[in-house]
């Protein structure tokens, strides 16, 4: 009788916990044991990373707009010379970096929204976990012959437990681990690329590029009689064109390196670091829960074999005495 009372008390506690979890009342003690500080740390990291991505995106937008003005421009002094080919390679690298910063900022924002969504729906899985535990224990204690129902409910407990721990522990700690590695590895790369693009932002503005591409020494020859001096115009424009090629070649090499570093940093920050931590922690959590709950294919097969064997023994009670020991 005492054991039955203890079992009923456990079921009542689980029922009360289910209702409390559904109302969000169990989140308060969970936050107080340290999860609140982890949540705040993750939000600060994602917000700072998003702000840096936005700042870098604006810098690249300014550079890209300055280069876009040169696309299709030409020097016309007795003849026309296209300048778009000179800045095309730089424009392509800046465009890739611009898209990378845009994608990185978007992924960081989506990660923040995913954490906010997880904080809203985690109570559903917590209440489901406690509910399945209550029903599973009730069937196990008071309806021991319903093995298939018990195994089905046990799978429900496993599913809800794994996803509850995923929302409460795996996802937050994945971001925490990613933020730690980001501070050590990715952040220096992003800072270097930001400073590099910032150093050429003013230099690649529309006004500065126009002054560099169309200096006064060439523009001054743009009079009606200078247009007829084609040999002189040709030499001056070609000399200027070659100096521009050398200048933009050097800048292309620098921007190419910055772009590759930017791509690598955002790949690690937004995909590799958080996804790796999430997969490792999720597999570890699922394996640990399955181990402690004794849920595996071998256990399920053993239960089935035990049930078949017991059913056979009950249906053939004389089978055990079919081969009695012979007297010597």
Summarize the structure.
With 328 residues, the chain is mainly α. Helix content is 84%, strand content 2%.
Explain what you see.
With 328 residues, this protein is mainly α. 84% of the residues lie in helices and 2% in strands. It has 8 helices and 2 strands; from the N terminus they run ααββαααααα. The protein has a two-stranded antiparallel sheet with strand order 1-2.
> First CA to last CA: what distance?
50 Å
Rg over CA atoms, rounded to whole Å, is: 35 Å
Instruction: Give the beta-strand count.
Output: 2
Q: What proportion of the residues form beta strands (DSSP E)? A: under 5%
Inertia-based shape: rod-shaped
Largest sheet: 2 strands, antiparallel
Helix content estimate:
over 70%
Mean pLDDT: 80
- What's the arrangement of strands in the largest beta sheet? 1-2
Q: Point out poorly predicted stretches.
A: 75-80, 219-230, 297-301
Report the order of strands and helices. HHEEHHHHHH
What is the number of helical segments per DSSP (H or I, 4+ residues)? 8
Return the structural class: mainly alpha
Offer a few descriptive terms.
328 residues; mainly alpha; two-stranded antiparallel sheet; 8 helices; 2 strands; 84% helix
Topology:
Layout lengths: L1 H21 L4 H44 L3 E3 L3 E3 L1 H59 L4 H55 L4 H8 L2 H4 L10 H64 L3 H19 L13
Antiparallel strand pairs: 1-2
Helix pairs in contact: 1-3, 2-3, 2-4, 2-5, 3-4, 3-7, 4-7
């Amino acid at each position: 009788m005492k054991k039955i009372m203890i079992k009923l008390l456990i079921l009542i506690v689980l029922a009360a916990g289910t209702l409390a979890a559904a109302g969000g009342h169990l989140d308060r003690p969970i936050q107080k044991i340290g999860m609140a500080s982890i949540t705040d740390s993750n939000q600060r990291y994602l917000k700072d990373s998003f702000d840096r991505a936005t700042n870098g995106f604006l810098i690249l937008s300014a550079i890209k707009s300055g280069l876009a003005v040169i696309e299709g421009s030409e020097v016309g002094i007795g003849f026309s010379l296209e300048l778009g080919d000179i800045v095309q390679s730089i424009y392509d690298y800046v465009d890739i970096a611009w898209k990378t910063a845009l994608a990185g900022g978007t992924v960081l924002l989506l990660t923040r929204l995913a954490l906010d969504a997880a904080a809203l729906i985690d109570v559903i899985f917590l209440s489901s976990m406690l509910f399945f535990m209550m029903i599973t224990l009730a069937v196990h204690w008071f309806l021991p012959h319903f093995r298939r129902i018990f195994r089905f409910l046990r799978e429900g407990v496993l599913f809800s437990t794994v996803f509850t721990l995923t929302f409460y522990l795996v996802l937050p700690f994945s971001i925490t681990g990613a933020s730690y590695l980001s501070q050590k590895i990715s952040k220096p790369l992003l800072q270097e690329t930001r400073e590099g693009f910032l150093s050429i932002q003013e230099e690649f503005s529309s006004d500065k590029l126009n002054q560099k591409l169309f200096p006064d020494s060439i523009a001054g020859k743009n009079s009606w009689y200078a247009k007829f001096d084609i040999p002189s115009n040709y030499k001056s424009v070609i000399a200027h064109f070659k100096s521009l090629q050398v200048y933009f070649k050097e800048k292309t090499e620098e921007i190419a390196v910055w772009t590759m570093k930017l791509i690598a940093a955002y790949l690690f920050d937004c995909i590799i670091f958080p996804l790796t931590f999430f997969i490792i922690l999720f597999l570890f959590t699922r394996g640990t829960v399955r181990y402690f709950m004794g849920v595996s294919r071998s256990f399920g097969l053993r239960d089935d074999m035990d049930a078949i064997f017991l059913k056979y023994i009950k249906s053939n009670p004389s089978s055990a005495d079919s081969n009695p020991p012979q007297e010597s």
